[in-house]
Amino acid sequence: MTPFLRAARPLRRAATARCKSPLNTAAHAPPADNTPPTFSPKPPSQQHDNKQHQPSPSPPNTFTTTPPAPSPSTIPPGFTATIASLPTFTLPSTPIDRNCPSHLALGRALAACVDDRSYAGYIASGEEVTAGVADYSEVFTVTKEFERGNGKVKAGWPCHGPCPWPEGGMGRRGEGLLRLAEMGLGGVANMVGMDRFPPRNMTNGKGKEGRGIGSHTDYGLLVISAQDDVGGLFIRRPSQDEQFANWKESAAGLREDDEGWVYVPPVEGVFTVILGDMMQYLTRNYLSATPHKVGLNTRERFVIAYFHEPSFQAVLKPLTEGCGGQPVQPQQGDETIADEPAGNHYGTHFTNMFMRAYPDRITTRRLVAEDRYRLLATPELRSIGAVPVS
Ligand SMILES: O=C(O)CCC(=O)C(=O)O
Ligand SMILES: [Fe+2]
Question: Half-sphere exposure of 327 toward its Cβ, with a 13 Å CA cutoff?
Answer without folding.
Answer: 3
